[in-house]
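Annual report, structural modelling task.

Input specification for the nicotinamide-adenine-dinucleotide complex:
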Amino acid sequence: MNTVELSEFSKIIFSQREFFNNGKTKDVNFRIEQLKILKQAISEYEQAIIQALQADLHKPEFEIYATEIFSIKEIDYVIKNLFNWTKPRKAAVPWEFFSYSAKIYPEPLGVVLIIGAWNYPFQLIISPLIGAIAAGNCAVIKPSELAPHTSSIIAEMITKYFEPTYIAALEGGIETSQKLLAEKFDHIFFTGGTAVGKIIMEAAAKHLTPVTLELGGKSPCIVDTDINLEHTVRRITWGKFLNAGQTCIAPDYLLVNKKIKQNLVDGLQKCLKEFYGDNPVHSPDYARIINQKQFDRLVNFLKDGEVIIGGETKPSERYIAPTLIDHVSLEHPIMQEEIFGPILPIIEYTDIAEAIALINSRPKPLALYLFSQNENLQKRVLQETSSGGVCINDTVMQFGVSSLPFGGVGDSGIGSYHGKASFDTFSHDKSVLQNSFWLELKWRYAPYKGKLAFLKRLLGQK
Ligand code: NAD
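The model returned the following structure:
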């Protein structure tokens, strides 16, 4: 393990500040070069990354490429756009400022800290790191200790390709996080649960450090009657049971129009068999639960409601079958906290107003899904609910679109990233106003006698 003492943390951050202050990271060509190095590092470590993710989560190789290694696409996107993003942008000035010009200069923040979660342990560190590099920062990264194989491979890869004075990978658990949080950073980017998010923000406040908090929550999935049933069941099954449900934007629970509920349930059951066979424990395409604590927490949920399909477990492998649950009450523990596992409660509604009221009675979710071709219904749900993002007639795919900022609102997070949003998150927009010397109007200077009437006219007053 690459753990270090407190004084070592301070030394690393100090050396990063020195490196940052020499101005090298401000050169866009340097940033592009570093992004290319990161891409090369990922391809060199591809097999090791796959093995680590399989050891930590039993992730199928297909899912590893689709949800973790796909970060290299983000590198290409950023490289293609970086010169454009870094250019100063002209800003309009009001006519009264006719002798002025205004521009906005994006500038790097300095030394940033990135703390990751365990469910997509590679991607959740590398994706924000791409943004931090693109914006010209130095970075300290701390992968999740709960995915130890991936944490170790990230640390090895980063240490091999980057000087710690520029990018340092520090491994460790809560204690390491806390020691890091005691240091002064210029930005903290955190992915994890809402409760820990509050701890991060509190620690950051001591240094007045801005934060991006990528948190979780219960993401609802509304299913209306106006759908293509076959496509709907496939898209829900995939988004929910990908990575055995351990996805921050997985549909947490279904809100289904009563008229279509039975058809949907039949379809989901059929689809589960199509995806994972009669006994998913033998499927090569189905992941396992990260650790015993999470396994025990999830097994407890199986007591709630009535299992329609699934419910089987194999503790020695931390396997929980893809499970559909009916007749849950809103008071059941499964409806009180984020599920973050392969259990899908199904709640019916008769009028969309009930579904909207339920969503609005809870903390704002990270994602909201709506399956419906009815445009009026789409408009209504968009207008009457608030969530980090929305995906209509699909699940999880919104994460893969670099032009869409990804992040939460309220309890599901603060700030966003991906593509240009990552660049903005790790940049400061410096406003620059410039006057010239060719004209000097004296109306704003003292003595003010006789000038108030002119100012009032400027303000639109008679
Ligand atoms: P977590 O909050 O337990 O841990 C995340 C990180 O915080 C880890 O690196 C851990 O070492 C550190 N940490 C934990 N406790 C700490 C403490 N007391 N002080 C300082 N640091 C601490 O989260 P997790 O269990 O790894 O991940 C699950 C949660 O993350 C879920 O709620 C999920 O929805 C959310 N999540 C969100 C996103 C997103 O993009 N919004 C992505 C993945 C996961």
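The chain has a mean pLDDT of 96.
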